[in-house]
Design brief:
Layout: H1 6-11, H2 17-26, H3 30-47, H4 49-59, H5 80-130, H6 133-137, H7 141-183, H8 185-191, H9 195-232, H10 234-239, H11 243-295, H12 308-319, H13 322-326, H14 328-349, E1 371-381, E2 389-401, E3 406-410, H15 417-424, E4 432-437, E5 440-441, H16 447-452, E6 454-457, H17 468-472, H18 481-490, H19 494-498, H20 517-531, E7 535-539, H21 547-561, E8 565-569, E9 581-586, E10 589-594, H22 596-602, H23 605-614
Parallel strand pairs: 3-8, 3-9, 6-7, 7-8
Antiparallel strand pairs: 1-2, 1-4, 4-5, 9-10
């Protein structure tokens, strides 16, 4: 059973998402929407002119008068030649009018639909940027991307096509009905006899189709998740020879989608021919009763004569009932997709943001670099917005760092080292206690100013798909080329960059795949050098590189850390033995603190970890053997 995601939780609480969509995003663009609807109405009414005029012209061939609904006879010609000439003008004008208003409708409808989607897409991305890191800790990229891409496209398709097609459908049905009644009320009643059946059949189809569309949407989501997992884990699949297992899992998900899709299509293909059959019944009845009236005389309940042209008009217009009604299945499909997508969009919008600027937050400027952790505790929330907290990760931690000092954090996996430093950046907010910079509680300062004063180099370096120069100046976008080069020199990156074919203009590829791990790491260091922060956070920045590269990176890090307050999480203890203070974390608590020499003399966990890395395993007591596994949090 699939675990409920945060999207599912907040989406379930969204009420009237389509009305909310129009209220929040459609209202500023109602002018375009109204213009599109009006142009659509005029285009559809203009398209009804040719069969009416044609019928009136045909009536003159057997001596009848040229007559048009709602037009006084005094305005119309009496002779056949005049009627023909006016008919040509009216029919040609109607086609020109239809084309002009169809163009206007298309422009206006697309301005409305694409304008709404532009605003939705930007607002969704802006909201994602404000969400807490806890939201992204357990969210798959595909799930997040679906809102920005496929969900907004579903809404766009509905607003651009289904909504306007609904207006066109209604206009055609009402317009045809009005024209027929004005032409001949008795024959109109015959032609429209099956209209209630069509409406009832359409209502039945909508009720039956809704759960089928919902099932198909669910199957699409599950297949996409399965494919994303399979592709993301392709290396594990290959190294464990599990290709057949993954193929079978994809096959099952695809089969489910196939079955749900066919169930939906079977109903749709039953509906469309059914509507065409009912339209055919209407045509047949009209032809039968109209032909009888034309050749024999008025049928029971009718009186007067029926012109051949009038029958032609009825036959033309009766055929136009089927097409718009048959499109109901497409409209329902697009509506159901848009409904689900709008629920997801507003589900995202409604996710509460925990880490925010306080109304009276001030800018953090002229930082000296004095950092204090005062009885800090932290526990992850179960989900954003939960009142209850989960298991405690950091428990009553206190320490301080003076300007220019280096504080190192070491300890076994899961001790809370990375989390402790992410609290300094306000990636999360403390559950209890305070973190202060130069005496300011970091919750009282603006986050942008806080983070601009802290340089972060992590163990997993991310580069955007762009040039090396663009990635170095990321965060300081106005830096000139000379500053970029100086930052690269300080990061020991200039030499390898200049050896690349395009130097600083070399494109790094998605996530920097065209560069080695060490090269990416040195670019990340150059980025921080250019930022020139007063506080530096190094999260196992040399954990994934070879010894030679580690030496180069460590040399650049040492230069970067000079005269800055530095916090370093150590994978290899040799890289932090010169720190002013070393903190040993276990289960979210500081169990040892001191200099390298002090901690070795104390002969605690740090000393045991040092022995492991020095290769002196025989000296380890049994009680420490399960506590010395080193890796990131």
């Amino acid at each position: 059973m699939t675990e409920e995601s945060v999207f599912d939780r907040y989406r379930a609480d969204v009420r009237r998402p389509m009305r909310r969509l129009f209220g929040a995003y459609g209202r500023p663009r109602y002018g375009w929407f109204a213009l599109g609807v009006l142009a659509n109405l005029l285009a559809q009414f203009a398209s009804l002119v040719p069969p009416v005029v044609l019928g009136a012209a045909v009536n003159t061939l057997d001596g009848g008068r040229f007559s048009l609904p709602l037009v006084p006879n005094a305005w119309l010609p009496t002779g056949t030649t005049g009627a023909f000439e006016l008919s040509v003008v009216l029919i040609g004008g109607s086609f020109l009018t239809t084309a002009a208003f169809t163009y206007l409708y298309g422009v206006a409808a697309n301005e409305f639909a694409h304008g709404v989607m532009h605003a939705v897409r930007v607002d969704c991305f802006e909201k994602m940027g404000r969400l807490d890191m806890s939201f992204f800790d357990d969210k798959q990229t595909g799930e997040v991307m679906a809102i920005l891409s496929s969900d907004t496209e579903n809404l766009e398709s509905f607003l651009d096509n289904a909504l306007t097609n609904s207006v066109r459908l209604g206009t055609l049905l009402v317009g045809i009905g009005v024209v027929l009644v004005l032409e001949n009320a008795y024959l109109a009643a015959v032609t429209l006899l099956v209209a209630p059946v069509m409406v009832g059949f359409t209502y039945w189809f909508m009720k039956r189709a809704e759960p089928l569309y919902a099932a198909r949407r669910s199957s699409v989501g599950k297949l996409n998740t399965r494919l994303e997992n399979a592709i993301s884990g392709i290396e594990l699949t290959k190294t464990t020879a599990s290709e057949a297992h993954e193929t079978e899992r994809v096959r099952r998900s695809s089969k489910r989608l196939f079955e749900d899709t066919m169930a939906m299509l079977r109903l749709s293909y039953f509906y469309r021919p059914g509507m065409e059959l009912l339209a055919g019944v209407s045509f047949t009845l009209t032809f039968l009763v109209g032909g009888y009236w034309l050749f024999v005389g008025p049928p029971p309940g009718a009186s007067g004569t029926l012109g051949a042209g009038t029958l032609v008009t009825f036959l033309f217009l009766s055929q136009r009932f089927a097409t718009p009604l048959a499109e109901v299945s497409n409209i329902i499909d697009q509506y159901e997709n848009a409904l689900a997508s709008s629920e997801r969009v507003f589900g995202l919008m409604d996710i509460p943001v925990g880490v925010t600027d306080r109304p009276d937050a001030v800018a953090l400027t002229d930082v000296d670099g004095h950092v204090e952790y005062d009885e800090v505790s932290f526990a992850y929330d179960g989900e954003p917005g939960d009142d209850a907290t989960g298991e405690t990760v950091i428990d009553d931690v206190s320490f301080s760092a003076e300007p220019g000092e280096t504080v190192a954090l070491v300890g076994p996996t899961g001790a809370g080292k990375s989390t402790l430093l992410k609290l300094l950046l306000r990636m999360y907010d403390v559950t209890a206690g305070e973190i202060r910079i130069d005496g300011h509680d970091i919750r009282d300062v603006q986050m942008a100013s806080l983070r601009s004063q802290i340089g972060y180099v992590g163990q997993e370096t991310f580069l955007f798909d762009g040039t090396i120069a663009d990635n170095i100046r990321y965060g300081d976008f106005d830096a000139d080329h000379e500053a970029v080069v100086e930052a690269a020199r300080a990061a020991e990156a200039h030499e390898f960059i200049t050896n690349l074919p395009d130097g600083y203009e070399t494109r790094v590829g998605e996530r920097g795949v065209k560069l080695s791990g060490g090269q990416r790491q040195r670019i990340a260091i150059a980025r921080v050098v250019l930022q020139d922060p007063q506080i530096l956070v190094l999260d196992e920045a040399t954990s994934a590189v070879d010894t030679e590269t580690e030496y180069l990176i460590q040399r650049s890090l040492d230069a970067l850390a000079a005269d800055r307050t530095t916090f370093a999480i150590a994978h290899r203890l040799s890289t932090v033995k010169g720190a002013d203070e070393i903190l040993v974390l276990e289960d979210g608590q500081i169990t040892e603190r001191g200099s390298h020499a002090d901690l070795l003399e104390r002969d605690g966990l740090y000393a045991q970890l040092w022995s492991v890395q020095a290769g002196d395993l025989d000296s380890l007591p049994d009680e420490f053997r399960e506590r010395v596994a080193l890796s990131d949090d």
